Amino acid sequence: MKIATWNVNSLRARADRVEAWLQRSDCDVLAIQETKCKDENFPWELFERMGYEVAHFGLSQWNGVAIASRVGLDNVERTFLDQPAFGKGGKDPVQEARAIAATCGGVRIWSLYVPNGRSLEDEHMPYKLQWLDTLKNHAQGWLAEDPSAQIALMGDWNIAPTDDDVWDIDFFRDGGYTHVSGPERAAFEAFETAGYTDVVRPFTPGPGVYTYWDYTQLRFPKKEGMRIDFVMASPGLAARVSGASIDREERKGKGASDHAPVIVDVAS
DNA sequence: ATGGTCGCGAGGCGA
């Protein structure tokens, strides 16, 4: 079974690319982030045409997560329990469309779009850290209930866990940018402590291996990217992973997302 | 590649 995660940066703008990618990647499950639409604008027929069931969670033109599967799509969950909410400009806090789960081919798939901290001092940063901590506590609990559980926490984590995961750590440190700060890295490492493993890195060692390249500043042709999209697998699932890759080709050309798909091969 | 982003949605925000 092949499972993949991809921040598509608008599903409607990327519909042709997504369809072509599904065709040639031959993946069984695709966790999508940043659909950037509500259900009423979701391209359902694209997935039907390709033989995939799909579940979507989108509340506005921002965020939005989905899971497409051709190996079953059961027990769909939108948001995780007590998922921290964010209120903009004093408005009522809302649980944003950043997490959806489904059981596909015996694996509990979570498509995650971790909040962007925006800046180290911004109120989005404590939101991001709390969001991750709450999810981690659940993830830890799932393993306590069933140590052999098949769980994939996959998506755009908006964290570069090691210095090799950005094109120039000094640029980020000196500029005071997010994604590389101590608290963010600690929040990510807490998932590893809880028993989850980045199953892609061993098959795609760095440095210089990335999943995201900013549209500006010619970052892609200059090979200036970031590794921020991850598949974190429970021990039971990690033991079955036989390969992984980052489809850097998909970042090329006109009309590409700023993220590349990340693919994991799971042995049956 | 001597340049300099996208997408949404209709102005400016978010990434």
Characterization of the model:
With 268 residues, the chain is of the alpha+beta class. The protein has a single domain, classed as Endonuclease/exonuclease/phosphatase (Deoxyribonuclease I, Chain A, 4-Layer Sandwich). It has six helices and twelve strands. It has helices at 15-25, 44-50, 124-145, 169-175, 182-193, 235-238; strands spanning 2-7, 29-33, 53-57, 65-69, 74-78, 99-104, 107-113, 151-156, 197-198, 229-233, 241-246, 262-266. The strands form two sheets. The protein has a six-stranded mixed sheet with strand order 3-4-2-1-12-11, with helices on one face. A six-stranded mixed sheet has the order 5-6-7-8-10-9. A hairpin with a 2-residue loop joins strand 6 and strand 7. Helix 3 (124-145) runs parallel beside helix 5. The longest helix has 22 residues, at 124-145. The mean pLDDT is 96.
